[in-house]
Design goal:
Length: about 900
């Protein structure tokens, strides 16, 4: 009823006012009015129930007077009804009570206990999210430990920074800048001294105060240099060095990692803070060398991994940034010693870290420094050498010799066993990397690829993990070397396809990858890791096969024949993999070998679509020969996959779609070249292969079954659904096409666009009325068919208005009174038929659809057609709708009953 009042209010408001504002206001008034009526009826009902439930009618006036009833709300009446009556108590005569003043009556009474059926099970709390955990950690930092000093230091930092900036910009302080800076520095030194005195009694307070004081001193030095020009760059830098050294000493003396980290951050930031842009890189790197020497000294006394890692990151980050911005090849002699020195620093720091670590943690190495140091150093060395292969090969050989030497020197230390093995592995890796840097990439790739496959075979036969992983690493190095050669020499330089050095080197990687995959599948003894490696190496070989083929096709095949070359390559590859799956000797690669042909056949579909969208004819010249060859190879591929379960069905699906797309794009491209034919003809006729295959799949699927007739139940449903999806997309697009039928005249329904829409609608109707349709889809049969019919009728109506009424096919249709009247008539007829049919046949779904359509038309009249009342079309819309509503009222005045059996089934009889 509230909805009815809202609709009535919206209609009256729209008619009496102007458009949307009046309708919205009327709907709000109707909502309030309907809600008030509903509450009044509920209150009246509750009063009647309360009056009927009283056991002593004579005592009722003494309990609740009519005046008190007028004060009670619906909630209070419900609570009065809920109060339990104790049957065991004898009746007590009620005496008249003095009237309760309104103030006491208005006091809230205690809520009654909830009924048992209203009790709810407490929900299971969800685990905190990552953001919640982060906020909890921040909250604990602010609420645990010495909270005041932590907050005080943060506020002090912010306050000092703001004070210096504000004083510099506004000039509010009249004291000399030197005096202000000196006072702040003296206060910070006083705080530092006080913190040092309290280091034994209040350690947390003392360390926080010391760190905050030194931070203030660093900022004061920076302000004196940058803001006030009180210090030259050299003096400011010297003071910062002294402060950093003091932090380090305090950290080591008090065993305070936080102070050490603070000092390291301040130390690395000091040159940036006092930089003028004209400094020497030798001085910068010398200063950083001193800092790293301090880190080395601290590592001799303390096992602080965070400090080591932070120094490593800061050193190489600043060095990399300087190299990108400032480095020139002429600076090599003054830059190379610092790179070597930093490499040696972070070569020995992990050794000291292990020596100073507790006994139970000496088997834990710092992987970031162990592997990051040679990697970053080698990359920076290559940049310094302008990636000169022979010079870089000499550098890697020297680094390998250093690692071998230090591994040999620590051979007698039991605690260095894990560290020594890591150094030995790095030495072997660097020595192996020397080969591709000194030789051509094609030779390197061939040697490494074959050597890697041999090592994998040896490692699997002798159960040696190191040899196995070394073989995999060699193949990766081979690929890396080949890519470097391609980047340096700029691609192919040979005149023969396939028989050239670059292609043969890539094919060696392909052979090594496939051979390694087969070795892991046969000799892996069913281990999960070996099965995974077999699949990964198979994909690795396939990736290089595709890359080598793409390089050859792009270099040797003309652009007009690219489609033919790629189609033939995909068909050949799919057939080769299918043959390999048919003759496989191991079950480890079943999934990869069975589904790879499906992937390549699906890639053919994408290739055909791309070619068709480029308006290339696939049935001409070399493309025709490639299509025929791909057809023969595809048939053989399907025969090889007949014994598979789902892979063969998926391949059959891709096989059928290949011919559908070839036929569709062949027709579309051929008709598009006829300039005198409208575009709607070629688009509509191009959809005919899709419709034809759907008809065959719906009624004669045996014609599409070979050679996968035994798997029809697997591929046929997916084929139907995919065809229906394509037809649905095409139908939606056709709904918004103007329908030019040139060179023929436009005739409603008998034009290419609307004929295509009718055929698509018939295809959906035949599918929805199929007896084999799932029950879930059967329940949607009526709404889907009704929606298709309504959309089709709307499109035909608007297209007729455009073609016959001369209204442009654009936004002008919305403003056209002819179009609006036509839509009103068509939609009203649809609503009338659905309403009457549902009411007469007892089908509530149809009746509800008709009611909704009529409601939409009514809203359209009030909000849109109301502006057209000044012309005949607008008037005709109102009159027609009124007449049709009268017909509905005469034929079907009442909705059907809820007990309809058709409502349960959800579809029309």
């Amino acid at each position: 009823m509230i909805f009815l009042w809202m609709v009535m209010g919206a209609v009256l408001g729209g008619l009496l006012s102007s458009g949307w504002p009046g309708a919205i206001g009327g709907a709000i008034v109707g909502l309030l009015w309907g809600k008030q009526l509903e509450l009044s009826r509920e209150l009246k009902h509750l009063r009647a129930q309360l009056a009927a439930s009283k056991p002593a009618p004579a005592a009722q006036p003494a309990q609740v007077t009519p005046e008190e009833w007028s004060w009670m709300t619906a909630h209070e009446a419900r609570e009065a009804l809920r109060e339990p009556v104790e049957p065991a108590s004898p009746p007590v005569a009620l005496t008249p009570q003095p009237p309760v003043p309104p103030v006491e009556r208005a006091k809230p009474s205690p809520e009654p206990a909830p009924w048992p059926d209203e009790a709810s099970v407490p929900p299971v709390p969800l685990p905190p999210s990552g953001f919640d955990r982060l906020m909890q950690r921040v909250w604990r930092w602010f609420t645990e430990g010495n909270v005041p000093v932590k907050i005080g230091m943060l506020v002090l930092f912010a306050g000092v920074a703001a004070l210096l900036k504000y004083a510099s910009d506004a000039g509010l302080l009249h004291t000399p800048p030197a005096l202000r800076v000196s006072l702040i520095a003296l206060a910070a030194m006083g705080g530092l001294a006080f913190g040092w005195r309290k280091r034994e009694t209040q350690r947390v307070f003392a360390l926080s105060l010391q760190g905050g004081a030194i931070g203030v001193l660093v900022m004061t030095v920076f302000a004196a240099f940058r803001l006030y020009d009180l210090l030259p760059a050299g003096a400011a830098f010297a003071l910062l060095v002294v402060l950093v050294a003091g932090i380090g000493v305090l950290a080591v003396m008090q065993d305070a990692l936080a102070l050490a980290v603070l000092g390291l951050v301040a130390g690395f930031a000091a040159p940036i803070l006092v930089s003028t842009g004209n400094g020497s890189h030798v001085a910068l790197f010398s200063y950083y060398a001193v800092l790293n020497l301090a880190i080395l000294g601290i590592a001799w006394k303390r096992s602080w991994r965070v400090l080591n890692l932070l120094g490593f990151i800061a050193t190489f980050a600043v060095g990399t940034a300087w190299g990108v911005l400032k480095y020139e090849h002429s600076l090599f002699a003054s830059t190379e010693p610092f790179l070597v020195l930093n490499f040696l620093f972070y070569l020995f720091i992990p050794l000291l870290h292990v020596l100073r670590a507790p006994v139970d943690r000496r088997l834990v190495i710092d992987g970031c420094l162990m592997f990051g140091n040679p990697l970053i150093s080698l990359l920076l060395q290559g940049a310094l050498l302008d990636w000169d292969g022979k010079a870089l090969a000499l550098s890697t050989l020297v680094a390998a010799a250093i690692y071998v030497s230090i591994a040999y020197a620590t051979r007698r230390l039991p605690a260095m066993r894990l560290l020594r093995d890591t150094w030995a592995i790095l030495a072997v890796a660097l020595a192996t990397l020397t080969v591709p840097l000194a030789l051509r990439a094609d030779v390197t790739g061939s040697i490494f690829a074959l050597e890697g496959a041999g090592l994998i075979w040896l490692g699997l036969r002798q159960q040696r993990v190191f040899a196995t992983w070394s073989g995999i690493a060699l193949q990766l190095f081979a690929a890396f070397a080949l890519m470097i050669d391609r980047a340096m020499h700029g691609g192919l330089g040979a005149a023969w396809p396939v028989l050239n050095r670059e292609c043969l080197s890539a094919l060696m990687l392909v052979v090594a990858g496939f051979a390694s995959s087969g070795l892991f599948a046969r000799l892996g003894h069913g281990r999960l890791l070996h099965r995974v490696l077999a699949v990964v190496l198979y994909g690795w070989g396939m990736l290089w096969w595709a890359a080598a083929s793409a390089q050859e096709i792009s270099h040797f095949v003309p652009g007009a024949q690219t489609f033919a070359a790629w189609l033939a390559w995909l068909a050949f590859t799919a057939w080769g993999v299918a043959e390999a799956s048919r003759h496989r000797t191991s079950r480890e690669l079943d999934v990869a070998l069975e589904w790879s042909p499906v992937a390549f056949m699906t890639a053919m579909l994408l290739l055909i679509v791309g070619t068709g969208l480029d308006h290339e004819q696939p049935w001409h010249g070399w493309s025709l020969l490639s299509v025929l060859a791909a057809g023969v190879l595809g048939w053989r591929t399907l025969l090889c996959l007949r014994d598979t379960a789902w892979a063969g069905a998926a391949a059959q699906w891709a096989w059928l779609w290949r011919w559908v797309l070839l036929a569709a794009f062949g027709i579309g491209v051929a008709l598009a070249r006829l300039r005198w034919l409208a575009g709607s003809w070629d688009a509509s006729l191009a959809m005919m292969p899709v419709l034809l295959v759907f008809v065959l799949a719906q009624w004669w699927p045996r014609l599409l079954a070979p050679p996968m007739a035994q798997a029809t139940s697997r591929w046929l449903p997916s084929l139907k659904y995919s065809l229906l999806m394509v037809m649905a997309v095409a139908g939606v697009v056709a709904l918004f096409v103007g329908g030019n039928a040139a060179p023929l005249r436009y005739v409603p329904v008998l034009n290419p666009v609307e004929l295509l829409l009718l055929l698509i609608a018939l295809a959906f109707a035949s599918w929805l009325t199929d007896a084999a349709l799932p029950v879930t889809l059967k329940r949607l049969r009526g709404p889907v068919l009704g929606g298709i019919a309504l959309a089709l009728a709307t499109s035909i109506t608007l297209r007729a208005v455009h073609q016959l009424g001369g209204v442009p096919w654009s936004d002008a249709l919305f403003d056209s009174s002819l179009a609006q009247m036509s839509l009103t008539l068509v939609w009203s007829i649809f609503g009338l038929c659905a309403w009457v049919w549902g009411s007469r046949r007892g089908h509530r779904l149809f009746w509800l659809a008709g009611a909704i359509i009529m409601g939409v038309v009514l809203a359209k009249l009030v909000l849109i057609d109301r502006r057209q009342l000044g012309n005949l079309f607008g008037i005709g819309s109102f009159i027609a709708f009124g007449l049709l509503c009268s017909v509905i009222g005469y034929l079907a005045p009442a909705p059907p009953r809820r007990s309809s059996s058709m409502e349960e089934t959800g579809h029309a009889p």
